[in-house]
Amino acid sequence: MSSTTRKILLVLMLIIAGAAVYFVFFKSPVQQNNELAEAPAAQESVYLPLTDLTGKEVAMDENKIAFVNVWATWCGPCNMEMPGIQTLYNKYKDNGKIAFYIISDEDAETVNPFIARKGYDLPFYQYAGAYPQALDGNAIPRTYIIYKGKILAQEIGASQWDRPEVIELIEKQLAAI
Fold first, then answer.
1. Angle, CA of 81, 149 and 27, to the nearest 5°
2. Are 130 and 46 in contact (CB under 8 A)?
3. What pTM value is reported for the model?
């Protein structure tokens, strides 16, 4: 390969890498639904029956703001956004009005070593059923902020979840509870 061809390939790779960084860290991570008050209640519940990593059944709390993240250990974008989720969780973990649900369909034997290696202190859960239509998708990570059965914000793909826009949305909802 000639040096000119190598330079062109290098420039193209840098452009692609720059675009990837932009979409992960600089695009708005929250798609807000500003018509929540007028929206009719969903017929199908968005609350999932979960188990913790010890197999104990856990019900999502419908009276709290729910931060729901669907992820997998093998998913690169999931791993990229996890530190931001940890920071957001650290900010709100002692607030009784918000609950975090970090959900995977992988078994505990896969998830536990990952958590230990990365040092995350997040509430991880398992779900192995069919997702409700509102939460269903063929891509991960998928993240939703839910309150009283309504999706307040959602993002398909990796985002920086400790961004000011997300904190502002959560603070606004917490003030209204």
1. 30
2. no
3. 0.74
